Amino acid sequence: MRLIFLTALYCCSFFAGYDNKADIRKTEIDGYAQGTTYHITYYANDSIVTKFQIDSILKKIDSSLSLYKPYSLINQFNNSDSGISIDSHLMNVLAASFATYNATHGLFDITVEPLVQAWGFGAMKNTEMPDSSSIQQILTCVGTNKLSLNKTFLSKQKPCVKIDMNGIAQGYSVDVIANFLEQYGIENYVVELGGELRIKGRKPNNEKMKIGIESPGDDEMDAELRQQVIELDSGAITTSGNYRKYYESGGKKISHLIDPRTGYSIQNEMISVSVYAQDAITADAFDNALMVMGCDSALHFVEQRKNIAAYIIYRKPDGTVADTASSAFYSLIHR
What pLDDT is recorded for position 243? Predict the structure, then answer.
């Protein structure tokens, strides 16, 4: 069986098969959540986890983290003057966001919401391009260091400080679902949401699961850029890129990936980054920051850390497209 999951820049394929065994049943659950699709495959003695349960989990996460739900906690915080009390979902994502903000020296910053909105990628419609003075004004509201958490109360220094969890929420959602499966004793599964994946287990013949990373077949990618296939029996793969969500203005590509230091869309050689980590929330947070860094800095950053690996597609100075990866990622590639 081959499951194909489309991401912003390439598709990931999950290959798994189980022989017909009396005590093992394959269960597949598909649905729609967070503006995209999800697909879950697991193997167990019975269909012990249902679509109703998965949808209930995702709805609960949305009520905390979704900018597209007016009643969500994140919108309540953004609309507040000083802060609100938060739930465990928002607290968990905040903890990971704070850690990634510190590790990347501010390149991953959840307070970019006003910038994302200003550039036309937010939950509210916006057709006017921001000028330099408005960007400078917005930057006074940006910075995770303007947030503080005291027990369950999240506070902010200014009313204009607002947060956007879109760079990490899907990875977190994948982890929540994966952990839910494991609570039911399910040890062989793949969870995919919006192209972000977490995998555990092996095939019946003890082979590791295989994930194919391939170009979308558009002109953006060179035809000679070959597919990479990686093998793993645990961990997560997430992606970030500037290929789908962008528009042209003044001869420049304006993507949804904003550099929180400058307030402007990134203008570097990066096309996409795929990150491997043990959990999806970690991979999802770092893939955005690596896109902002640029190829050389991103590779250096990843090589200094044992908890992540990265595969990068980038454009060379002559305009051709190339790929590279960290040493740990190369060790995952199926030969």
Answer: 65
